[in-house]
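Re: weekly structure request thread

Next one in the queue (726 aa):
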Amino acid sequence: MGGGSTRRHFTFGLAAAGATPFLADLAPLVPAEAAVTTGPFAPVAPIVPKTFREFGGVRVDHYDWLRDRKDPRVVSYLQAENAYADARLQSIRPLVDELAAELKAREAQDDASVPTVYNGYVYQRRFVQGAPYPYIVRRKDAPGAEEEVVLDVGALAAGHSQQYSLGSWTVSSDNKSVAFTVDFTGGREFCIFVRTIAGGEIVDQRIDDADSDILFAADSETLFYVRNEPTTLRSYQVWRRRLGSDPKGDVLVYEESDPAFSVSIDLSRSRKFILLSIEEERSSEFRYLPADQPAAEPRIIEPRRRGVIYEADHLGDAFFIRTNLDAPDFRLMRAPQAAPGAQNWTEIVPEEPGRHLTQFKVFETFVTIDVESENGTKIRVFNLPDLREIPVPRPALIGVASSSFANDNEANLDPAAKVLRFHFSSPLQPQCVYDFDVATGALALRKQDPATRWFDASRYVLDQVSATADDGERVPITIVYRKDTRRPGGNPTLIVGYGAYGLSWRATFTRSAFSLIDRGFVYAIAHVRGGHEKGERWYAEGRMLKKRNTFTDFIAVTEALIAKGYVDPRAVFAQGGSAGGLLMGTIANLRPDLYAGIVAEVPFVDVVTTMSDASVPLTTLEYDEWGNPAKKREYDYMLSYSPYDNVGPKDYPPMFVTAGFHDTQVSYAEPAKWVARLRSSKTDGHELLFKTDMTAGHEGRSGRLGSIRESAEIMGWIIAHAAKVG
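Done, posted below.
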């Protein structure tokens, strides 16, 4: 099952690139007038001063009115910005069309997951030719069994032209019913449906105001689900209901009263327990109840303690626990089912300092962990019960190997399996799915990304270098370029970065990047502090009162790439989304002279205002990431770098900014206010475009092809701006 995100994160992908002074190969793609296009005047947002008083100081915000989505002026302003951006982009429409066609052609026209076994059935997810949504099928795990459709997502999405995002889905233990969640706006507000599989009859028509997490109890008649707070969307209640009954009879199982904590639910690997995960940034707590006793009171594994994070699963007669207790980079523990408290935890996989243990999965005869470092992520497998390590072949030294899949229902569901399924991807290897036989050590390729039909790795170079930060820290950089396009004096370069929540920008294959690399660009990932590329320390040094390291790391990476000759200093572009958009907004204030263009997608840029408003989704959950502005030291620190609050009368580079009107992770108002303030303050004549998708949320439009047009526009925009320095 896959739930909705509870962080300001953005799906790491590429929607932009840089330029080159040697544009002979690009010139045919860029209309001659693109570099000198003039268009309508940029929209001017009305100034409505609002005064905030904090700690004896005064902060005046001229554009706070944009936060009121019910104000008719807001939609008018966003539509005016969209019209202005469309007019400015009109001259590069042929290039955008070409890029969009290329991106679409490089997507799999039809696709299917590797079949996986669960509870006596073989499941598979498929896309038919060109379809935006999949259908999920299954057959009994027996020779000659007929196939049946579990969910036809395309048919379910019919009539929902603007947005239809399948959240999670789960099948009852008796294999008769499927429960699933749907987000109709992109705002992480899910509705729950339950249907029979055989006939498609509706069992439960709709449960609103829910999170994505759902599961059946062992009786197949009881459904557990999570509700969100109406305004903040914090997942805070676990409910139990009898299928087909009056919703008024649903029973509240658990309510989390601390606004810094959120709740999620899952079924243990053993299917014996329903697990409640209660967590905030720096501590967590798990509760459990027997799946065959749905009315039982949840019991605590280990009470929450400040600074102690753990997650638990169950198999056999034991709980398996990943924790940072006395191990900042986490270790794996085991505890007896009868007494699972921390005093009974015993270590089975020790911590590797500087290498972050990100997740684990337990089977009857082995346990597997994912370990992250600056080279990517590797899988380690340990035999049970003797804990002998079983080496797992690694397809490449740099890249990401993981036993967890984007769609959790697609692999490693059977704890009795003797084979571990994992996927691997590197910047020069499209994702492949492998089966690793734990007993024999054999590795079998089960699926290759369709990109292998057009991608030739021998044409490209993958480099790993580093930059030296202001404090002497070494910041890793991953670089990809084409062998035959390197230029004396450097190439146009796109540098991407994120650096928040401990989420690393992993060095994987990004197909859209090659639409730019093939046109002469260098693509670089700045592994700045705030992720886990170099362990928990790397994360700790990029959050709270050390957040500035994220920004100065990125600037150091930019300067190092110029000094090492990879980059033409006139054609450096930067891109980041969500919390990575905060990074973009801050470098625009700190070093606008370094960049020929900046792309900020759904950027978190109004830090102080957002973190001061407890009614805003995610705010109370993230005090330990950014700080609590009710504390003066933390308020002052956030104010010192908040992009919106530090816009000034200076020259800024060209910028392309995006938003989603239904975004509940970063409100549309943050980039809207930022752009309005930039327009009224900046002293240059550089282009500033702002586009709001009025039908989408944080992750953009639904469907696997939903974001192609936006990506093509951003890439085309950067190519056109690259032509100006050619």
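The first strand starts at residue 50 and ends at 54. The first helix runs from residue 72 to 89.
Next request, please.
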